[in-house]
From TrEMBL:
It holds the Pfam family 2OG-FeII_Oxy_3. It comes from the Bacteria. Gene3D superfamilies: q2cbj1_9rhob like domain. The lineage of its organism: Bacteria, Pseudomonadati, Bacteroidota, Flavobacteriia, Flavobacteriales. The keyword Iron applies. This is SM-20-related protein.
Length: 229
């Protein structure tokens, strides 16, 4: 990520990103630019309303239906191919998504994510060739202890991305906030991000430790990783 400015400068003969985009006939997307600027500045980005409420409703119907049909399994630690179940670390239930078999709701999800990924690849030369996503349900009383997403396994994960599918109203008493731990000149700072409907959080998988605090009301989301291979 840090190379963006330099690469743009090299390709455009010390010009700005704007000039480069103009030369290659590329349309700048302000929302995606905001995400990139946030990631460069502080390693995470929070975008409210990334998914519209009708889109969240469709995705929530889909996750609830699949959860009720017992398609979910207890989440493990590790990645898709290297799993260990450890209840004292995380208590959520997950269902991996298969883009090839996406239903109406999941198609909406993948369309938006693919558009963002292609923008990142074209403008930041990020080389994201692979993605993995799962639905997650945190029943009441569950949590995910502080961790790094590369934990035990996967150095190819570059960006972690979480999209929340809860109902509109999520008061702080519901708990379940995502805590992100930042290093501010050697002093730790904790940021609390509540899982509001349609909100997405993107952060650098290898850099930021984070945690899901204990939830008091079932919590619904899609978590995914953008990977280099
Ligand atoms: O649901 C969240 O807010 C974060 C989930 C998470 O950290 C993970 O699944 O690795
Ligand atoms: Fe995580």
């Amino acid at each position: 990520m840090m190379q963006r400015k330099y690469i743009c400068e090299i390709f455009s003969g010390m010009g700005t990103t704007d000039e480069l985009f103009e030369q290659i006939g590329f349309e700048e997307n302000p929302l995606y630019e905001q995400i990139i600027a946030d990631l460069l500045e502080r390693k995470y980005s929070v975008i409210d309303g990334f998914f519209a409420s009708e889109e969240v409703d469709l995705l929530r119907d889909s996750i609830m239906e699949k959860y009720q049909d017992h398609e979910f399994k207890k989440a493990a630690i590790g990645n898709k191919t290297n799993e260990v179940i450890e209840k004292s670390i995380r208590g959520d239930f997950i269902l991996w998504l298969d883009e090839e078999k996406a239903g109406e709701a999941e198609k909406i999800y993948f369309d938006k994510i693919n558009s963002l990924v292609s923008y990142l690849n074209r403008t930041c030369f990020m080389g994201i060739l692979n993605k993995e996503f799962h639905y997650a349900v945190y029943p009441e009383g569950t949590f995910y202890k502080r961790h790094l997403d590369t934990f035990l396994n996967d150095g190819r994960r570059k960006l972690s991305m979480v999209c929340y599918l809860n109902k509109e109203n999520w008061p702080p008493e519901n708990g379940g906030e995502l805590a992100i731990y930042l290093d501010k000149n050697g002093v730790e700072e904790e940021i609390a991000i509540y899982p509001l409907a349609g909100r997405i959080v993107i952060f650098e998988s290898q850099e930021l430790e984070h945690e899901v605090k204990i939830v008091k009301v079932p919590r619904y989301s899609i978590t995914g990783w953008l990977k280099t291979r």
